[in-house]
Amino acid sequence: MLRTFALFALLCAFYSSQAQFQFPGDTIRIGELSYTVKPTGRNDFVSINDTIYTYTETSLVGGFASTGELRISGQMYSFRENFFPGPISSDPNSTSFYARTWTVRKTMVDSFLQGYYFIPPIEIRSWPAHGRSQFGESYNLAPFVDANNNGYYDPMGGDYPLIKGDISTIALFNDSTAGSIDTSGRRMHIEGYAMFFAFNPTSNLKNTLFKEVVLFNRSGQDYSDTYLSNFADMDCGWSPNDLIMTDVGRQALFAYDAYPVDSTQNGLYPKTPYSGTVLIQGPEADYFDGLDNDWDGCIDGVLDSNGICIQEDSTNNIRERIALSSTMSYINSFSPISGVPQTDLEVYYYLTGRFMDGTPIIIENPSGFLNPANGDGHVPGGSGPISNFIYPGNTVSPVSHLEPQSPTNWFQSPGGLEDVKGFISMGPFTWEDGEAISFISATYAGRIDHQFHGNILDSINAHIDGIRGIVTSGSLSSTEINQPKLRIRLGQSENQLHIHNDMSSPTTLYLKDLSGRELGQISVAGNGEKTYDVTHLPTGVYILQDISGDWVRKWVRF
Question: In 3D, which of 280, 324, 326, 320 has the Cα closest to residue 296?
């Protein structure tokens, strides 16, 4: 057994080193927070003050093809890695071509919009907005703002990356590019991107890493009973001391130390650490599936701003999103019940909130917080009260199709601790051919004084509530500014500037030089066009700004 384990560890280390050699990724630091984003869409080493709280975080998706065959795509560690850099491509060297990530700061985009750059910076110019048509790659890849409405990414024409937060890093990936090697299971033939974003340390969202994952089905078929999941290996100091818990109502899965003082201290003493993941937004549900998927009390509909239930409507894309559907954990062992999954079916069971043998989670011998008498939830035959969520404590499901419906007092036992990992999942749903699915999650971490270890859940709940409260208020705004819809065209040969106003109301623009000196005013009627003579202006860079100051655009006079 020891020899087998040693061989397993050696192989994992080898493949891990190979993957890291090929795809080194980008390490980001913002305030106390640091993390590494890999070109395959995973993030590693989420740290605060260089102390790791989440070792790795990845995405997985699984569903059944039209033939009834189970397909799984995603990654956990290098022994299950079938995401590769870039979009699906016929280029056998595309993995090397896209083996990088792209990072853009909001301050850079703001400066670009205000006209401070004669030439857009390389971070904006190199944004991977489009694929390479000669290799059959998708036209649209990374999201961007098409400021001049010409349908393609044109930074010199005012286009810029559509990012979130104060700093964003994007990775493009797929499971089916030419020359790639599928290390496990059958491919789903999908591609997409993961955008990781964070906020400045002055923000109430400091030390929080957000992730938005967008996946496209390029298989030519629909997938049924699909589950989308975020996998996290949370390490609170010495990882074998960690316990895991689900807060169902807060849509969160987190790990916390079983003991007030971490075994290795790891620079944490006298603090007790915790870390976790909270679901912010899930994928869209199937139309009219008879469920309250988004937990708003409105079945097959969504609540409007007045709290009125609006029924789903495919014509107008009114559709529920799926909240947290299940959570599951496993330990770093060869256990056939709750160990490292080896087959696609075992992974799928985890995504659906079941053990590797397919049995559901059972509320087993619930005995309270930090009580070693709590059962592990695996009961042969699956007899007993079922839970869709691992170790929900006293939290409950707000909807009737998920369990538990009442407090259970069931927590993970601190006896026989192992290195634990977990999934938050959303499903089931039908993933149609060509359809995009997405989710947004937040990874958070913190620590409390070890004297208050018995109340650590209160601190974790307060942390999650702080994140969700800010998110609910709409603070995860992107760089897509709500500007008046003006389209600017320049007729260089005629020494004329053509301005078209797509709004129904009139507007006035100031023409300025880079020092801010006003050179003229241009009034444009609603839904109108104005031609402005620029013969008197020397070549150079100018600024156009509307009278409210909300819309700013750089203009280069050649």
Answer: 320
